[in-house]
Amino acid sequence: MYLENRSYQIQGVRVLDIADQFGLPTYVYDADKIIQKIDLLRSSFTGVDLKIKYALKALSNLSILKLMRSQGVEVDVVSVNEARLAMRAGYEPSQIMYTPSGNRFAEIQEAIALGLTINADSLPLIEQIGQTYGSTVPICIRINPSIIDGGNLKIQTGHADSKFGIPNQYRPQIKALVEQYGIPVIGLHIHTGSDFKDGNTFLKIADVLFDLASDFPDLRFMDFGSGFKVAYREGDHATDLAELGQKVSAAFKEFCARYGRNIELWFEPGKLLVSESGHLLANVNVVKENPTRTFVQVDTGLNHLIRPMMYDAWHDIINVSNPEGPETLYTVVGYICETDTFATDRLLPQVRTNDVLSFENAGAYGFMMASTYNMRGRPAEVMVYDGQAYLIRERETFEDLLRGQIEIEFTELTTI
Ligand SMILES: *Cc1c(COP(=O)(O)O)cnc(C)c1O
C-alpha cells in the first residue's frame, strides 16, 4: 500500500502501524522530540541558573508530565487542578508556579495551602493576600510591560489593553501594597504572549524586569514567561534559541552583578517543548468532488484540533498511506456540523477513501482544547518512547460522554 522505504515513521515505529493498533483519530507524541527541545533550550543558556517551568496547559497528559519531570523540567500551572495533576505526576508543590488570571480567591487560598509559588496578577489580589496572610506568603508579581508581540491578537498578552498582569506604571502602588503588609516578593514575571515575531522582545522584557528589580531586594528568580515561536510551515520564522540564549544570558549575568547576587532565570515554554512532538492522525471518510473544489472529509474536526478555526493556524498535512501519489489540490475539512476547515486548497499526494492523514505540529493546544461537541468523544493519546508506542489515554466512549448527566422523568402527554 505504501513504499516501505518512504513510510512515515516516528522513532522507527510506522505511523500506519500506530493507526492500526490504536485506531483513529489518535494523537501521537514523540518523546524524543520533547527531550530534544528541552536539551536545546537548556544548552542555549550559559553561566546562568536556568529553570524551565513547562506551561502544562499546552499538553498535560500524566505521562507527558512524568517525562518532563524525568528531564528535570518543573511546571507552571494556571489552575489548582493543573497543580494537582502535576503532583499526581510526582512534582513537589515547591516546583510548581501558580499563575492565575483573575481566579477566585478561594482557589488562590487552595494554592497557598498546597504550597505552590503564587504569581499575583492584580493589585486587588496582592491586597487580599496581605489582608489574609500578612507577611507569611511570599509572592511573585506578574507585570504587564505594555509590549506588543505575539502571533495574533488572541495570543498577545503583554500589551496595555490586555487583561493579564499588573500594568508596569502601577509600580508605586505595587511597592506601597507589599510594604504595607510586609509581603516578601521573591519573583517578578512577564509573559507577553505566544509566537513572538521579534527575537528581541525577550530583551525588552528583561529591561522592564531589571529596572523593576531595584524595588525588590528579596528576589530569588525572574520569570521571562514564554513566547517562543515554533515554525508551523516551511519558511516560517522560529525563535533562534542559540542567539536568544546568548543575548539573554549576557544581559542576565550583568543584571545579577548589579543586583548584588545571583538569582534564578526562569522560562515557561509550552508550545516550544511539545508542539512538534505531536501528530493528529485521522482517517479519510469521503473524497467529495464539487464543481469548485475537492473536499477531503476526515473523521475528526474542530472538536479535536481547533487551532485552524480559532487562530487561522497552519498545520502541515501528510498523506501517510499514499505518500507517492500524484499531487492535487484539496480542501481538508472536518465532520463537525459547522464550517470546519483544516486547510484550503492544499497540495497533497492523491487522497483516497480510508487514507490516513497526519496533522503535524499538533502537540500544543491540540488535545487540550478538544471538546465533545457533536457528541463525539476525544481521541486516544499515544506516546512513542524508546522506539515503542504506548497508549497514554483511552479514546472517549459514548458512556464517558453520558457520565454526570442526570435525567428528569416527565409524564408523557396523553391525547384526549
Ligand atoms: C500559556 C502560557 C505559557 C506558555 O505559552 P507558549 O506560547 O505555549 O509557550 C507560559 N506562561 C503562561 C503564564 C501562560 O499562560
From TrEMBL:
Q: What name does the UniProt record give this protein? A: Diaminopimelate decarboxylase
The protein's assembly and partners: Homodimer.
Specify which residues bind substrate according to the UniProt entry for this protein: 307, 311, 338, 365
Which source organism does the UniProt entry give? Rudanella paleaurantiibacter
Binding positions for pyridoxal 5'-phosphate per the UniProt entry: 227, 365
Which family does the similarity line name? Answer: Belongs to the Orn/Lys/Arg decarboxylase class-II family. LysA subfamily.
Domain Orn/DAP/Arg decarboxylase 2 N-terminal as annotated: residue spans: 32-274
Enzyme Commission number(s) from the entry: 4.1.1.20
Q: In which pathway does it act?
A: Amino-acid biosynthesis; L-lysine biosynthesis via DAP pathway; L-lysine from DL-2,6-diaminopimelate: step 1/1
SUPFAM superfamilies reported in the protein's UniProt record: Alanine racemase C-terminal domain-like, PLP-binding barrel
One of the record's GO molecular function terms: pyridoxal phosphate binding
Q: Which residues form the active site?
A: 337
Which reaction is the catalytic activity of this chain?
A: meso-2,6-diaminopimelate + H(+) = L-lysine + CO2
Q: Identify residues that carry N6-(pyridoxal phosphate)lysine.
A: 57
Q: Where is the Orn/DAP/Arg decarboxylase 2 C-terminal domain?
A: 27-363
NCBIfam families per the UniProt record, alphabetical: lysA (TIGR01048)
Q: Cofactors per UniProt? A: pyridoxal 5'-phosphate
Q: What does this protein do?
A: Specifically catalyzes the decarboxylation of meso-diaminopimelate (meso-DAP) to L-lysine.
Q: Does the keyword Amino-acid biosynthesis apply?
A: yes
Q: Does the keyword Amino-acid biosynthesis apply?
A: yes
